[in-house]
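Working notes for the structural subgroup meeting. M.R. asked for a predicted model of this chain before we commit to crystallization trials. I am recording the input and output together here so anyone reviewing the notebook later can reproduce the run.

Input as submitted:
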Amino acid sequence: MIVRVDGDACPVRASILQITNKYEVETVIYTDVNHELSYETARVITVDQGIDSVDLAIVRDMKVGDVVITNDYGLASLVLGKKGYAMDANGRAFTLNNIDQLLFERHMHKSLRMMKKKHKGPKKRDRQADVLFSKNFEALVIQLKA
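Returned structure, recorded in token form:
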């Protein structure tokens, strides 16, 4: 198992590295050329700038059983299709049971934006989201290492 991180705007990189280091799990963080990241305990892969360039690199590299941390529902859907595990930065696991609904909601929100209708965006990130992510991510790592 390798943990692969959609790293450009990931608010939980430090938590990911703390947990993957604790359980000695390889971690790869993907970013585009507009972001400079460097970590002693993780490999960083930098790809060209472009729509979905990071997502496509993750899907290209991942293997069955890898874990991908992303807030992108489209990427999560591709990960599930390749028999991987996907989780967002709030600790929500993407599954075959919830991904269709999430993709539908994403489509509806995009349609509303195109019609210039207002809708609520995501709420501001708080400490509780970080705690929930760490708890759920560590539980997933423990489960997969067993």
